[in-house]
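Before the break, one more example. Copy the sequence into your notebook; we will annotate it together after we see the structure.
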Amino acid sequence: VQLVESGGGLVQAGGSLRLSCEATGFTFSNYAMSWYRQAPGKERELVAAITSTGITTSYPDSVKGRFNISRHRSKSTIYLQMNSLKPEDTAKYYCKLRVLQRDFWGQGTQVTVSS
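Here is what the structure looks like once it is written out:
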């Protein structure tokens, strides 16, 4: 299994970014996937999840209405569209796959939101 995130960067408050996570080494369409983030000195937290079919998504209140997770079956890629970004969204963002109670993580992509 390999997960490779991209799309992070520096953006001003109120701006947008779209993160991508390309997945290889497993049957992409069979598994739910998720995005997490971790800011310095803080625990890693879930920011979005999507079912294997892409029909159902979920978000914590902190990002609901601003972030949107999606997946593209033929590209084996999940996305995180982030709008109305705030300085508190600054963190390293990771995609995660769980298979048989084992978690796989990408290397992460840094998102920095300036005020």
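The CA atoms of residues 44 and 111 lie 14 Å apart. The radius of gyration is 13 Å. Try to locate both features in your own notes.
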